[in-house]
Design a protein that fits this description.
Helices cover about 65% and strands about 0% of the residues. The chain is mainly alpha-helical. Residues about 415-440 have low confidence and may be disordered.
């Protein structure tokens, strides 16, 4: 989280002011420590240029030059490297001043901590003498300090701006940012070593070319991922508009599917696929007549057969979306039952894909714990007990157990997904399927 929010609460302004004050103190040079103004000016100009290019073209941050400054300059001088970039780069959204101050103070504190760590471990001598692999130890420690300070600052701003507990605000920040910062740190070390070599700063610039290519690749990945999210969001919104009684249901099924997948120890790629599967499991309702989705009273057998086509409709609708992978199998089979009495194909046991068995449990759980116009929400404990009662016949016991364990660890907040019926008006009655917890 590099920028402050659009509306800056008093706590967030205090966070910005505190960071700015600390950065100003860090930039005070120590007595008898000469400042290499030439190197500082070159690095500051280079960082400002790289920051402009990377932000405009790739929408990210570029730390190799900052970390090279930590390896080449005294801590106070290194803290000044990001200042020109913060002053020159455009601020897209108001308020301008707090954003610009934060953009200067945040990297200044991080690079100062990195330079202090590098200096304390005598990394300067290793860089000047190109002593490998010994130069890697102080550089690695400096990268850790850099990443840690960024994490602390970003978490503090998140907590101050969004009023969340600090522990929650910091959760996962360090681990997510460490790998990319470490890659930037290695490039910064190579830049610093070449800078001190007989070939000078010009040779050091060559290190930044492959880093620029890497930034482009990551930017393309994030743009593709954003396109995926936009595609899914559009489909879910279309379903929510058509079947307003289950608004928000798809996102919660995706969340519950992720909880099950993580409890089962699935890797991140499969967790993401299951999130997609949960979110899109009912996309086939776009092919079902709206009058059936919103019908008062029970469905006729013929109407139920039409409703039961929605998994096949969803499978066909998502046929050309390659990034969904096995999520399409979950969309097709999430209404199958272990005893073979489900639909659309009457698969049983392990014939049902694992991802579909996950989504089936998540789907039924949210249906039971959400208040809708035609049914009241059940307590989480009651819903889990019902899932356990139906395990082995309707649901995979392994998936039910994983959801129960995840709920004990993390809890659940069921939401109202439709307006409550008006006082004195009985809720709509629908047929919910052959077992408790099933739904359309």
């Amino acid at each position: 989280m590099e920028a402050v929010p659009a509306r800056v609460p008093a706590r967030a302004r205090a966070c910005v002011a505190g960071a700015a004050l600390l950065a100003a103190l860090c930039a005070l040079p120590a007595p008898a420590t000469p400042t290499p103004w030439g190197t500082l000016a070159l690095l500051a100009a280079l960082y400002a240029l790289c920051d402009q290019v990377v932000r405009r073209r790739f929408g990210g941050t570029f730390y190799p030059v900052l970390l090279a400054g930590a390896f080449l300059l005294p801590p106070a001088a290194a803290a000044l490297v990001p200042l020109p970039a913060a002053l020159l780069s455009p601020v897209e959204h108001p308020p301008t001043l707090p954003r610009r101050v934060w953009r200067a103070a945040r990297p200044a504190l991080a690079v100062w901590a990195a330079a202090q760590t590098h200096h304390a471990l005598d990394g300067g001598a290793a860089v000047d003498g190109s002593v490998f692999p010994y130069a890697l130890l102080p550089a690695g420690a400096a990268v850790l300090a850099f990443c840690l300070v960024l994490t602390l600052l970003d978490g503090a701003m998140h907590a101050a701006a969004d009023r969340v507990p600090l522990r929650r605000a910091w959760r996962g920040l360090f681990t997510r940012s460490l790998a990319p910062v470490a890659v930037h740190g290695l490039a910064g070390l190579m830049t610093a070593v070449l800078w001190r070599s007989p070939y000078g700063p010009v040779a050091a610039l060559l290190v930044l070319l492959p880093m620029g290519v890497s930034c482009w690749v990551f930017a393309q990945y994030h743009r593709e991922r954003a396109a995926h999210q936009a595609t899914i969001r559009a489909l879910v919104q279309a379903v929510d508009i058509k079947d307003g009684y289950t608004r928000g249901h798809s996102e919660r099924v995706g969340q519950a599917s992720v909880m099950i997948a993580r409890q089962l120890g699935m890797d991140d790629a499969r967790v993401e696929v299951l999130r997609f599967a949960g979110i899109l499991h009912d996309v086939g309702k776009l092919g079902v007549p709206t009058r059936l989705l919103r019908k008062d009273g029970p469905l006729t057998p013929e109407e139920r057969r039409i409703i039961e086509l929605h998994p096949e409709y969803g499978h066909e609708m998502t046929r050309g979306i390659s990034f969904l992978g096995e999520a399409r199998a979950a969309i097709l089979h999430h209404h199958e039952r272990l005893d073979g009495s489900g639909y659309p194909y009457g698969l049983e046991g392990t014939q049902i894909p694992e991802c579909a068995r996950v989504v089936a449990v998540a789907d039924a759980f949210d249906a039971m714990t959400s208040t809708r116009s035609y049914s009241r929400a059940r307590p989480v404990e009651v819903a889990v007990a019902e899932l356990e009662r139906c395990a082995g016949a309707q649901f995979d016991p392994r998936m039910v157990g994983a959801l129960a364990a995840a709920l004990r660890r993390h809890g659940w907040r069921p939401e109202v997904t439709a307006d409550e019926p008006a006082s004195g008006v009985p809720p709509r009655q629908r047929t919910h399927g052959r077992t408790t917890g099933a739904h359309r």
